Amino acid sequence: MEVTLAELLGVARRRLVEAGIAEAGLDARLLVEHLTATTRADAIARPQQQVPAEAIAAVEDAVARRLAGEPVHRILGFREFYGLRLSLSAETLEPRPDTETLVEAVLPLVEAVAARSGRCRILDLGTGTGAIALALLHTVAAASAAGVDISDDALATAARNAAQLGLSGRFTPLKSNWFSEISGRFDVIVSNPPYIRSDDIGSLQPEVRDFDPRRALDGGPDGLGAYRIIAAGASGHLEPGGYVAVEIGATQKTEVQQVFQANGFVLAEARRDFGANDRVLVFARP
Ligand SMILES: C[S@@+](CC[C@H](N)C(=O)[O-])C[C@H]1O[C@@H](n2cnc3c(N)ncnc32)[C@H](O)[C@@H]1O
């Protein structure tokens, strides 16, 4: 059966709308564009172009997965972060737009160190896809980063992303339980650690709960477990005058600040995300 690009897009969109998928139009477009190797411009300029049978079958399969609750970027296998296309895998969190706030907070610090000393060493704790470290390295040519994770799968994905972006020479994936295998000192330590309280995981949106890896979400009984470890270990791995910047849950500002203050840090900056929620804290050691 002959199907045009416009018809395929229309059917995919309609099926997702009928199922009550919130971003039905966008999801349909992302899936169809990727699986038919077309662009938005093709859909506008050449809507009557015929789509090959294999691409139609691939779109049908992808729409069925979306209808079963799988997030669109898991189906695609990649997600854009800070303008970079990052591959995903089973044990990586999907990088979120809110985490770009962390990159934006850290970027001036990295640029200042690089301008002053010609280099900047970054430690990204819980690197996942490598999102934060790779965004910083992509922007600051003099920077280098160690990306730490406890998951072999995540580290393999981060290394692949670094290679795809031409950043392998400045990105070192390291398997470590937070600081356990880390030696040396860094100018900036950055982390988006797991910060959901264990008891709250069951009530997360199914797309998060069922598809993001639990190890990337679960912050222990009070959600603060990783912050305690990072705050306790950071001083021993920071250059004098260095910074630690962390992403936080929207209600965790006071608690996380207290954890770092108890370890001798002072709050240098707090930022909100695009939804005006507290999202990033930057700490310094006087
Ligand atoms: C919230 S995800 C953040 C991923 C990525 N940095 C991002 O922002 O998209 C937290 C990451 O911490 C890693 N992680 C969890 N426990 C860890 C541990 N004990 N040591 C090192 N990394 C850990 C997880 O595997 C996951 O990749």
Describe this structure in words.
The protein is of the alpha/beta class and 286 residues long. The chain has 2 domains: 72 residues, Helicase, Ruva Protein, domain 3 (Orthogonal Bundle); 205 residues, Vaccinia Virus protein VP39 (Rossmann fold, 3-Layer(aba) Sandwich), CATH 3.40.50. 42% of the residues lie in helices and 20% in strands. The protein contains 12 helices and 9 strands. The strands form 2 sheets. It has a 7-stranded mixed beta sheet with strand order 5-4-3-6-7-9-8, with helices on both faces. A two-stranded antiparallel ribbon has the order 1-2. Helix 6 crosses helix 7. The radius of gyration is 21 Å and the shape is elongated. It starts with a helix and ends with a strand. The relative contact order is 0.11. The chain binds S-adenosylmethionine. The site of S-adenosylmethionine has 21 residues, from helix 7, strand 4 and helix 10.
Fold topology:
Layout: H1 5-18, H2 24-36, H3 40-45, H4 53-67, H5 72-76, E1 78-81, E2 84-87, H6 100-117, E3 120-125, H7 131-139, E4 143-149, H8 152-164, E5 171-175, E6 186-191, H9 206-209, H10 214-217, H11 225-234, E7 238-247, H12 253-261, E8 266-272, E9 278-284
Parallel strand pairs: 3-4, 3-6, 4-5, 6-7
Antiparallel strand pairs: 1-2, 7-9, 8-9
S-adenosylmethionine is lined by residues 93, 95, 99, 126-129, 131-132, 148-151, 154, 177-178, 192-194, 215-216.
Pfam families: MTS, PrmC_N
Family: Belongs to the protein N5-glutamine methyltransferase family. PrmC subfamily.
Protein name: Release factor glutamine methyltransferase
